[in-house]
Design a protein that fits this description.
By secondary structure, the chain is of the alpha+beta class. It has three domains: 192 residues, Hypothetical protein af1432, CATH 1.10.3210.10; 75 residues, Phosphorylase Kinase, domain 1 (2-Layer Sandwich); 205 residues, Alpha-Beta Complex (Aminoglycoside 3'-phosphotransferase, Chain: A, domain 2). 54% of the residues lie in helices and 9% in strands. The protein contains 20 helices and eleven strands. The strands form three sheets. It has a six-stranded mixed beta sheet with strand order 1-5-6-4-3-2, covered by helices on one side. Strands 7-9-10 form a three-stranded antiparallel beta sheet. A hairpin with a 2-residue loop joins strand 9 and strand 10. Helix 1 runs parallel beside helix 3, helix 5 runs antiparallel to helix 6 and helix 14 packs antiparallel against helix 15. The longest helix is centred in the N-terminal third of the chain and has 25 residues. The radius of gyration is 25 Å and the shape is globular. It starts with a helix and ends in an 8-residue tail after the last helix.
Protein backbone atom coordinates (compact mmCIF):
# COMPACT_ATOMS: atom_id res chain seq x y z
CA UNK A 1 0.00 0.00 0.00
CA UNK A 2 1.45 3.38 -0.94
CA UNK A 3 1.15 6.59 1.07
CA UNK A 4 -1.88 7.91 -0.85
CA UNK A 5 -3.87 4.70 -0.45
CA UNK A 6 -3.07 4.57 3.24
CA UNK A 7 -4.10 8.21 3.67
CA UNK A 8 -7.44 7.62 1.94
CA UNK A 9 -8.23 4.66 4.19
CA UNK A 10 -7.12 6.55 7.32
CA UNK A 11 -9.15 9.67 6.44
CA UNK A 12 -12.22 7.62 5.50
CA UNK A 13 -12.19 5.88 8.88
CA UNK A 14 -11.74 9.09 10.88
CA UNK A 15 -14.36 11.03 8.89
CA UNK A 16 -16.80 8.10 8.97
CA UNK A 17 -20.37 9.24 9.66
CA UNK A 18 -19.53 12.93 9.28
CA UNK A 19 -21.25 15.12 6.68
CA UNK A 20 -20.57 18.55 5.22
CA UNK A 21 -22.52 21.26 7.02
CA UNK A 22 -23.67 23.11 3.94
CA UNK A 23 -24.93 20.31 1.69
CA UNK A 24 -25.03 17.17 3.85
CA UNK A 25 -22.67 15.22 1.59
CA UNK A 26 -20.31 12.61 3.12
CA UNK A 27 -17.38 14.58 4.53
CA UNK A 28 -14.73 12.36 2.95
CA UNK A 29 -15.68 13.73 -0.47
CA UNK A 30 -14.16 17.11 0.42
CA UNK A 31 -10.58 15.95 1.23
CA UNK A 32 -10.69 13.69 -1.84
CA UNK A 33 -11.66 16.69 -3.97
CA UNK A 34 -8.82 18.71 -2.43
CA UNK A 35 -6.34 15.96 -3.27
CA UNK A 36 -7.63 15.81 -6.85
CA UNK A 37 -7.15 19.57 -7.27
CA UNK A 38 -3.63 19.25 -5.86
CA UNK A 39 -2.84 16.53 -8.40
CA UNK A 40 -3.41 19.10 -11.17
CA UNK A 41 -0.67 21.28 -9.69
CA UNK A 42 1.96 18.82 -8.44
CA UNK A 43 3.04 15.19 -8.41
CA UNK A 44 4.50 15.57 -4.90
CA UNK A 45 2.84 12.71 -3.03
CA UNK A 46 3.45 14.34 0.36
CA UNK A 47 1.46 17.40 -0.69
CA UNK A 48 -1.37 15.33 -2.16
CA UNK A 49 -1.41 13.17 0.98
CA UNK A 50 -1.70 16.30 3.12
CA UNK A 51 -4.72 17.26 1.02
CA UNK A 52 -6.41 14.00 1.96
CA UNK A 53 -5.59 14.51 5.65
CA UNK A 54 -5.92 18.29 5.96
CA UNK A 55 -9.10 18.31 8.09
CA UNK A 56 -8.19 15.39 10.37
CA UNK A 57 -6.90 17.53 13.25
CA UNK A 58 -9.64 20.17 13.07
CA UNK A 59 -12.63 17.89 12.62
CA UNK A 60 -11.78 14.44 14.06
CA UNK A 61 -10.01 12.90 17.03
CA UNK A 62 -6.87 12.42 14.93
CA UNK A 63 -3.67 14.19 16.00
CA UNK A 64 -0.64 15.68 14.31
CA UNK A 65 1.56 13.27 16.24
CA UNK A 66 -0.23 10.30 14.75
CA UNK A 67 -0.11 11.81 11.26
CA UNK A 68 3.64 12.40 11.61
CA UNK A 69 4.17 8.83 12.79
CA UNK A 70 2.17 7.37 9.89
CA UNK A 71 2.97 9.75 7.06
CA UNK A 72 6.10 11.69 7.97
CA UNK A 73 7.15 15.07 9.32
CA UNK A 74 6.47 17.14 6.20
CA UNK A 75 2.93 15.80 5.75
CA UNK A 76 2.22 16.65 9.38
CA UNK A 77 3.63 20.17 8.89
CA UNK A 78 1.44 20.70 5.82
CA UNK A 79 -1.65 19.50 7.69
CA UNK A 80 -0.75 21.80 10.60
CA UNK A 81 -0.70 24.76 8.20
CA UNK A 82 -4.38 24.09 7.47
CA UNK A 83 -5.41 23.38 11.07
CA UNK A 84 -6.63 26.40 12.98
CA UNK A 85 -6.25 26.69 16.73
CA UNK A 86 -9.75 27.10 18.10
CA UNK A 87 -9.86 29.65 20.94
CA UNK A 88 -11.47 27.87 23.85
CA UNK A 89 -13.84 29.77 26.11
CA UNK A 90 -14.86 32.29 23.44
CA UNK A 91 -17.81 32.37 21.11
CA UNK A 92 -16.88 31.13 17.65
CA UNK A 93 -17.84 34.42 16.03
CA UNK A 94 -15.66 36.42 18.39
CA UNK A 95 -12.63 34.29 17.53
CA UNK A 96 -13.27 33.82 13.79
CA UNK A 97 -11.46 36.94 12.52
CA UNK A 98 -8.48 36.47 14.81
CA UNK A 99 -8.07 32.84 13.79
CA UNK A 100 -8.23 33.75 10.12
CA UNK A 101 -5.71 36.57 10.53
CA UNK A 102 -3.27 34.26 12.26
CA UNK A 103 -3.70 31.59 9.59
CA UNK A 104 -3.19 34.08 6.76
CA UNK A 105 -0.04 35.40 8.41
CA UNK A 106 1.36 31.87 8.62
CA UNK A 107 0.45 31.26 4.97
CA UNK A 108 2.20 34.44 3.86
CA UNK A 109 5.36 33.50 5.75
CA UNK A 110 5.44 29.91 4.51
CA UNK A 111 8.34 29.01 2.21
CA UNK A 112 6.94 25.59 1.28
CA UNK A 113 5.10 25.75 -2.03
CA UNK A 114 3.19 22.67 -0.90
CA UNK A 115 1.53 24.72 1.84
CA UNK A 116 0.32 27.29 -0.67
CA UNK A 117 -0.93 24.65 -3.08
CA UNK A 118 -2.80 22.98 -0.22
CA UNK A 119 -4.46 26.23 0.76
CA UNK A 120 -5.45 26.95 -2.83
CA UNK A 121 -6.93 23.48 -3.30
CA UNK A 122 -8.90 23.65 -0.03
CA UNK A 123 -10.29 27.13 -0.68
CA UNK A 124 -11.20 26.22 -4.25
CA UNK A 125 -13.08 23.10 -3.13
CA UNK A 126 -14.92 25.16 -0.51
CA UNK A 127 -15.86 28.01 -2.82
CA UNK A 128 -17.08 25.61 -5.51
CA UNK A 129 -19.62 24.32 -3.01
CA UNK A 130 -20.38 27.83 -1.78
CA UNK A 131 -20.95 29.15 -5.32
CA UNK A 132 -23.43 26.34 -6.02
CA UNK A 133 -25.42 27.05 -2.87
CA UNK A 134 -25.24 30.81 -3.46
CA UNK A 135 -26.84 30.21 -6.86
CA UNK A 136 -29.76 28.46 -5.12
CA UNK A 137 -30.18 30.48 -1.90
CA UNK A 138 -28.66 33.88 -2.55
CA UNK A 139 -27.76 35.96 0.51
CA UNK A 140 -29.59 33.54 2.80
CA UNK A 141 -26.65 31.17 2.46
CA UNK A 142 -24.55 33.23 4.90
CA UNK A 143 -26.74 32.21 7.83
CA UNK A 144 -25.20 28.73 7.55
CA UNK A 145 -21.75 30.05 8.53
CA UNK A 146 -20.09 30.72 11.88
CA UNK A 147 -19.27 34.13 10.42
CA UNK A 148 -22.49 35.24 8.69
CA UNK A 149 -21.16 38.61 7.48
CA UNK A 150 -20.54 38.24 3.71
CA UNK A 151 -18.04 41.11 3.80
CA UNK A 152 -15.87 39.19 6.27
CA UNK A 153 -16.09 36.08 4.08
CA UNK A 154 -15.14 38.19 1.09
CA UNK A 155 -12.14 39.56 3.00
CA UNK A 156 -10.97 36.06 3.85
CA UNK A 157 -11.18 34.63 0.33
CA UNK A 158 -9.73 37.73 -1.33
CA UNK A 159 -6.86 37.94 1.18
CA UNK A 160 -6.04 34.29 0.57
CA UNK A 161 -6.05 34.80 -3.19
CA UNK A 162 -3.80 37.85 -2.95
CA UNK A 163 -1.21 35.87 -0.96
CA UNK A 164 -1.31 32.96 -3.40
CA UNK A 165 -1.36 35.01 -6.59
CA UNK A 166 2.36 35.68 -6.94
CA UNK A 167 3.32 32.02 -7.09
CA UNK A 168 0.18 30.26 -8.32
CA UNK A 169 -1.55 32.71 -10.64
CA UNK A 170 -0.79 30.59 -13.67
CA UNK A 171 -2.57 27.49 -12.37
CA UNK A 172 -6.06 26.59 -13.49
CA UNK A 173 -6.99 26.22 -9.81
CA UNK A 174 -6.13 29.86 -9.08
CA UNK A 175 -8.04 31.13 -12.09
CA UNK A 176 -11.09 29.11 -11.05
CA UNK A 177 -10.88 30.50 -7.51
CA UNK A 178 -10.91 34.06 -8.86
CA UNK A 179 -13.88 33.23 -11.09
CA UNK A 180 -15.95 31.99 -8.15
CA UNK A 181 -14.95 34.94 -5.93
CA UNK A 182 -16.08 37.36 -8.63
CA UNK A 183 -19.34 35.45 -9.07
CA UNK A 184 -20.25 35.67 -5.37
CA UNK A 185 -18.77 39.15 -4.80
CA UNK A 186 -18.78 40.89 -8.23
CA UNK A 187 -15.87 43.21 -8.92
CA UNK A 188 -13.60 41.86 -6.18
CA UNK A 189 -10.83 41.15 -8.65
CA UNK A 190 -9.95 42.43 -12.07
CA UNK A 191 -11.29 39.80 -14.45
CA UNK A 192 -7.81 39.59 -16.01
CA UNK A 193 -6.67 37.75 -12.89
CA UNK A 194 -8.77 34.80 -14.01
CA UNK A 195 -6.69 34.58 -17.17
CA UNK A 196 -3.06 33.72 -17.84
CA UNK A 197 -0.59 36.41 -16.87
CA UNK A 198 0.47 37.95 -20.16
CA UNK A 199 4.00 37.75 -21.40
CA UNK A 200 5.37 37.99 -24.88
CA UNK A 201 3.99 34.96 -26.69
CA UNK A 202 6.37 32.86 -28.77
CA UNK A 203 6.01 29.61 -30.65
CA UNK A 204 8.47 26.71 -30.64
CA UNK A 205 6.91 25.14 -33.72
CA UNK A 206 9.75 23.98 -35.96
CA UNK A 207 12.40 24.70 -33.30
CA UNK A 208 15.07 22.08 -32.75
CA UNK A 209 14.84 20.24 -29.44
CA UNK A 210 18.26 20.41 -27.78
CA UNK A 211 17.59 18.70 -24.45
CA UNK A 212 14.81 17.49 -22.19
CA UNK A 213 14.67 17.02 -18.44
CA UNK A 214 12.37 16.78 -15.44
CA UNK A 215 11.41 20.47 -15.50
CA UNK A 216 11.00 20.98 -19.23
CA UNK A 217 12.77 21.15 -22.58
CA UNK A 218 15.39 23.36 -24.21
CA UNK A 219 15.00 24.45 -27.85
CA UNK A 220 17.11 26.35 -30.33
CA UNK A 221 14.80 29.32 -31.05
CA UNK A 222 16.95 31.01 -33.68
CA UNK A 223 20.63 31.54 -34.50
CA UNK A 224 21.14 33.70 -31.41
CA UNK A 225 18.60 32.46 -28.87
CA UNK A 226 17.67 29.33 -27.03
CA UNK A 227 14.52 28.93 -24.98
CA UNK A 228 13.92 26.73 -21.96
CA UNK A 229 10.25 25.75 -21.83
CA UNK A 230 9.12 24.73 -18.35
CA UNK A 231 6.48 22.07 -17.85
CA UNK A 232 3.00 23.25 -16.88
CA UNK A 233 3.49 22.48 -13.19
CA UNK A 234 5.98 25.38 -12.95
CA UNK A 235 4.59 28.81 -12.11
CA UNK A 236 6.09 32.06 -13.30
CA UNK A 237 7.53 32.36 -9.81
CA UNK A 238 9.52 29.16 -10.39
CA UNK A 239 10.90 30.62 -13.61
CA UNK A 240 11.77 33.94 -11.97
CA UNK A 241 13.51 32.08 -9.16
CA UNK A 242 15.67 30.12 -11.58
CA UNK A 243 16.59 33.26 -13.51
CA UNK A 244 17.48 34.96 -10.23
CA UNK A 245 19.69 32.03 -9.23
CA UNK A 246 21.50 32.14 -12.58
CA UNK A 247 22.34 35.80 -12.03
CA UNK A 248 23.49 35.08 -8.49
CA UNK A 249 25.61 32.18 -9.73
CA UNK A 250 27.18 34.35 -12.43
CA UNK A 251 28.20 36.95 -9.86
CA UNK A 252 29.73 34.19 -7.72
CA UNK A 253 31.89 33.02 -10.61
CA UNK A 254 29.92 30.15 -12.15
CA UNK A 255 30.00 30.37 -15.96
CA UNK A 256 26.31 30.47 -16.77
CA UNK A 257 23.98 31.79 -19.41
CA UNK A 258 21.86 34.72 -18.20
CA UNK A 259 18.22 34.86 -19.22
CA UNK A 260 16.91 38.23 -20.30
CA UNK A 261 13.21 37.56 -19.97
CA UNK A 262 10.22 35.30 -19.45
CA UNK A 263 7.94 34.47 -22.35
CA UNK A 264 4.72 32.52 -22.77
CA UNK A 265 4.86 29.33 -24.84
CA UNK A 266 1.26 28.22 -25.22
CA UNK A 267 0.11 27.52 -21.67
CA UNK A 268 3.66 27.23 -20.33
CA UNK A 269 6.41 29.64 -19.37
CA UNK A 270 9.74 29.92 -21.10
CA UNK A 271 13.05 31.61 -20.34
CA UNK A 272 15.08 33.08 -23.19
CA UNK A 273 18.89 32.92 -23.26
CA UNK A 274 21.30 34.50 -25.71
CA UNK A 275 23.59 31.66 -26.75
CA UNK A 276 24.90 32.35 -30.22
CA UNK A 277 26.34 29.33 -32.06
CA UNK A 278 26.18 27.14 -28.97
CA UNK A 279 25.26 23.49 -28.47
CA UNK A 280 24.73 21.25 -25.48
CA UNK A 281 27.55 18.90 -24.56
CA UNK A 282 25.12 16.04 -25.18
CA UNK A 283 24.55 17.01 -28.79
CA UNK A 284 28.27 17.55 -29.37
CA UNK A 285 29.14 14.13 -27.94
CA UNK A 286 26.35 12.47 -29.90
CA UNK A 287 27.71 13.94 -33.13
CA UNK A 288 31.37 13.37 -32.30
CA UNK A 289 31.65 10.39 -29.89
CA UNK A 290 35.31 10.00 -30.85
CA UNK A 291 35.95 13.34 -29.10
CA UNK A 292 34.38 12.26 -25.80
CA UNK A 293 37.74 12.61 -23.99
CA UNK A 294 37.91 16.30 -24.91
CA UNK A 295 34.38 17.05 -23.73
CA UNK A 296 34.87 15.05 -20.52
CA UNK A 297 38.00 17.05 -19.78
CA UNK A 298 36.13 20.34 -20.24
CA UNK A 299 33.39 18.99 -17.99
CA UNK A 300 35.93 18.14 -15.29
CA UNK A 301 37.34 21.67 -15.46
CA UNK A 302 33.84 23.09 -15.09
CA UNK A 303 33.15 20.84 -12.09
CA UNK A 304 36.33 22.03 -10.37
CA UNK A 305 35.27 25.63 -10.99
CA UNK A 306 31.88 25.05 -9.38
CA UNK A 307 33.33 23.09 -6.47
CA UNK A 308 35.96 25.75 -5.88
CA UNK A 309 33.39 28.42 -5.04
CA UNK A 310 32.87 28.93 -1.31
CA UNK A 311 29.56 30.13 0.13
CA UNK A 312 28.25 31.14 3.54
CA UNK A 313 25.01 30.45 5.37
CA UNK A 314 23.90 33.97 4.46
CA UNK A 315 24.00 32.98 0.78
CA UNK A 316 21.03 30.74 1.52
CA UNK A 317 21.98 27.58 -0.37
CA UNK A 318 20.54 24.32 1.04
CA UNK A 319 22.72 21.49 2.33
CA UNK A 320 23.21 18.89 -0.43
CA UNK A 321 23.34 16.00 2.05
CA UNK A 322 19.70 16.67 2.96
CA UNK A 323 18.79 15.31 -0.47
CA UNK A 324 20.68 12.08 0.24
CA UNK A 325 18.89 11.62 3.56
CA UNK A 326 15.59 12.07 1.79
CA UNK A 327 16.58 9.31 -0.65
CA UNK A 328 17.13 6.99 2.31
CA UNK A 329 13.85 7.72 4.10
CA UNK A 330 11.89 7.60 0.84
CA UNK A 331 13.30 4.26 -0.27
CA UNK A 332 15.40 2.07 2.02
CA UNK A 333 13.49 3.32 5.05
CA UNK A 334 10.40 1.63 3.65
CA UNK A 335 12.29 -1.60 3.06
CA UNK A 336 14.67 -2.10 5.98
CA UNK A 337 14.82 0.34 8.89
CA UNK A 338 18.02 -1.13 10.31
CA UNK A 339 19.80 -0.80 6.96
CA UNK A 340 18.43 2.73 6.58
CA UNK A 341 20.01 3.63 9.91
CA UNK A 342 23.37 2.28 8.73
CA UNK A 343 23.07 4.31 5.54
CA UNK A 344 22.30 7.47 7.51
CA UNK A 345 25.47 6.91 9.54
CA UNK A 346 27.49 6.63 6.32
CA UNK A 347 25.95 9.84 5.00
CA UNK A 348 27.08 11.48 8.23
CA UNK A 349 30.69 10.63 7.31
CA UNK A 350 30.56 13.02 4.35
CA UNK A 351 32.58 16.04 5.42
CA UNK A 352 30.78 19.34 5.80
CA UNK A 353 31.71 21.61 2.93
CA UNK A 354 31.00 25.25 2.16
CA UNK A 355 31.52 24.78 -1.58
CA UNK A 356 28.87 24.80 -4.27
CA UNK A 357 27.34 21.84 -6.08
CA UNK A 358 25.10 22.19 -9.12
CA UNK A 359 22.67 19.44 -8.14
CA UNK A 360 21.65 18.46 -11.68
CA UNK A 361 25.03 18.32 -13.37
CA UNK A 362 24.90 16.52 -16.72
CA UNK A 363 25.63 17.20 -20.36
CA UNK A 364 22.08 18.29 -21.23
CA UNK A 365 22.46 21.23 -18.86
CA UNK A 366 25.75 22.61 -20.18
CA UNK A 367 26.26 24.48 -23.44
CA UNK A 368 29.54 25.05 -25.21
CA UNK A 369 29.97 28.60 -26.50
CA UNK A 370 33.31 29.45 -28.13
CA UNK A 371 34.94 26.57 -26.24
CA UNK A 372 33.54 27.91 -22.94
CA UNK A 373 31.05 25.75 -21.01
CA UNK A 374 27.96 27.61 -19.78
CA UNK A 375 25.55 26.12 -17.24
CA UNK A 376 21.77 26.36 -17.22
CA UNK A 377 19.14 24.85 -14.89
CA UNK A 378 20.46 26.19 -11.60
CA UNK A 379 17.44 25.69 -9.36
CA UNK A 380 19.16 22.89 -7.38
CA UNK A 381 22.30 24.79 -6.45
CA UNK A 382 23.39 23.75 -2.96
CA UNK A 383 26.44 23.55 -0.74
CA UNK A 384 28.12 20.27 -0.05
CA UNK A 385 30.98 17.85 -0.64
CA UNK A 386 31.93 17.18 -4.30
CA UNK A 387 31.31 13.46 -3.68
CA UNK A 388 27.59 14.21 -3.92
CA UNK A 389 28.01 15.73 -7.40
CA UNK A 390 30.21 12.83 -8.52
CA UNK A 391 27.54 10.38 -7.41
CA UNK A 392 25.01 12.31 -9.53
CA UNK A 393 27.25 11.91 -12.57
CA UNK A 394 27.74 8.21 -11.90
CA UNK A 395 23.96 7.89 -11.67
CA UNK A 396 23.38 9.66 -15.00
CA UNK A 397 26.12 7.89 -16.96
CA UNK A 398 26.25 4.43 -15.40
CA UNK A 399 23.38 3.45 -13.12
CA UNK A 400 20.49 4.70 -15.28
CA UNK A 401 21.57 2.42 -18.12
CA UNK A 402 22.53 -0.57 -16.01
CA UNK A 403 19.27 -2.45 -16.60
CA UNK A 404 18.25 -0.76 -19.84
CA UNK A 405 20.93 1.07 -21.87
CA UNK A 406 18.20 2.71 -23.95
CA UNK A 407 17.30 4.91 -20.97
CA UNK A 408 20.62 6.74 -21.23
CA UNK A 409 20.51 6.77 -25.01
CA UNK A 410 17.09 8.46 -24.91
CA UNK A 411 18.12 10.87 -22.15
CA UNK A 412 21.57 11.91 -23.35
CA UNK A 413 21.35 11.17 -27.05
CA UNK A 414 24.44 8.98 -27.20
CA UNK A 415 25.20 5.34 -26.45
CA UNK A 416 25.57 3.76 -23.03
CA UNK A 417 29.15 2.76 -23.85
CA UNK A 418 29.96 6.38 -24.68
CA UNK A 419 28.30 7.49 -21.46
CA UNK A 420 30.43 5.14 -19.37
CA UNK A 421 33.57 6.27 -21.15
CA UNK A 422 32.60 9.90 -20.57
CA UNK A 423 32.37 9.29 -16.83
CA UNK A 424 35.65 7.37 -16.69
CA UNK A 425 37.55 10.18 -18.40
CA UNK A 426 35.74 12.83 -16.35
CA UNK A 427 36.67 11.14 -13.07
CA UNK A 428 40.35 10.73 -14.00
CA UNK A 429 40.61 14.35 -15.08
CA UNK A 430 38.63 15.65 -12.09
CA UNK A 431 40.70 13.77 -9.52
CA UNK A 432 43.91 14.26 -11.47
CA UNK A 433 44.98 10.64 -11.12
CA UNK A 434 45.35 7.39 -13.03
CA UNK A 435 45.53 5.39 -9.79
CA UNK A 436 43.04 2.56 -10.36
CA UNK A 437 42.66 1.87 -6.65
CA UNK A 438 41.76 5.50 -5.96
CA UNK A 439 39.35 5.67 -8.90
CA UNK A 440 37.64 2.40 -7.97
CA UNK A 441 37.23 3.57 -4.39
CA UNK A 442 35.44 6.75 -5.48
CA UNK A 443 33.25 4.82 -7.93
CA UNK A 444 32.31 2.34 -5.22
CA UNK A 445 31.18 5.15 -2.93
CA UNK A 446 29.29 6.80 -5.78
CA UNK A 447 27.61 3.47 -6.57
CA UNK A 448 26.44 3.20 -2.96
CA UNK A 449 24.73 6.60 -3.15
CA UNK A 450 23.29 5.80 -6.57
CA UNK A 451 21.72 2.53 -5.41
CA UNK A 452 20.12 4.44 -2.54
CA UNK A 453 18.81 6.96 -5.05
CA UNK A 454 17.45 4.28 -7.38
CA UNK A 455 15.41 2.61 -4.62
CA UNK A 456 13.93 5.99 -3.70
CA UNK A 457 13.08 6.65 -7.34
CA UNK A 458 11.21 3.35 -7.66
CA UNK A 459 9.32 3.93 -4.43
CA UNK A 460 7.90 7.17 -5.82
CA UNK A 461 5.69 5.06 -8.08
CA UNK A 462 2.27 3.93 -6.92
CA UNK A 463 2.77 0.43 -8.34
CA UNK A 464 6.09 -1.42 -8.33
CA UNK A 465 6.52 -3.99 -11.09
CA UNK A 466 8.20 -7.39 -10.71
CA UNK A 467 11.21 -6.08 -12.62
CA UNK A 468 11.47 -3.06 -10.33
CA UNK A 469 11.08 -5.29 -7.28
CA UNK A 470 14.05 -7.32 -8.52
CA UNK A 471 16.09 -4.13 -8.91
CA UNK A 472 15.23 -3.07 -5.36
CA UNK A 473 16.25 -6.47 -3.96
CA UNK A 474 19.52 -6.43 -5.91
CA UNK A 475 20.34 -2.87 -4.85
CA UNK A 476 19.47 -3.57 -1.22
CA UNK A 477 21.96 -6.45 -1.23
CA UNK A 478 24.67 -4.24 -2.73
CA UNK A 479 23.94 -1.44 -0.27
CA UNK A 480 24.04 -3.84 2.68
CA UNK A 481 27.42 -5.20 1.55
CA UNK A 482 28.91 -1.73 1.08
CA UNK A 483 27.38 -0.34 4.29
CA UNK A 484 29.11 -3.12 6.19
CA UNK A 485 32.47 -2.46 4.54
CA UNK A 486 32.79 1.28 3.91
CA UNK A 487 34.02 3.52 6.71
CA UNK A 488 33.44 6.82 4.95
CA UNK A 489 31.98 8.33 1.78
CA UNK A 490 34.64 11.02 1.62
CA UNK A 491 37.48 10.85 -0.88
Amino acid sequence: MNILEEAIIYATILHQGKVRKLDGSPYILHPLEVSQILSTMTDDEEVITAGILHDIVEDTDGTLAEIEKRFGERVAELVASESEEKKSGKASRMSWKRRKEESLKALKNSKDMGTKMLWLADKLANIRSLAGLYSEKGEAVWQEFNEPDPDEQRWYYSSTAEILELELNKTAAFKELIKHVNFIWPGTFDSEKARFRKYKEVSIEGCKLLAAGAKGEVYRYDDELIIKVFNNKNTYRDVEQEIGLSRKAFIMGIPTAISFGIVAVGNRYGAMYELLDSETFSSLIARNPANVDYYASLFADLARTIHGIHVTEEDGFPDATARLRKYITGGIGKEDEALAEKCMKLIDTISDSDTLTHGDFHTNNVFLLNDEPLLIDLDRLSSGHPMIEISDLYYFYNILGEDDPAVIEDFMGFSYDTAKKFFEVFLRKYLGTEDKKKLDSVKEKAAFICDVRMINKIHKKSDISEEERAIIDRDLARIAELAGRLDTLDF
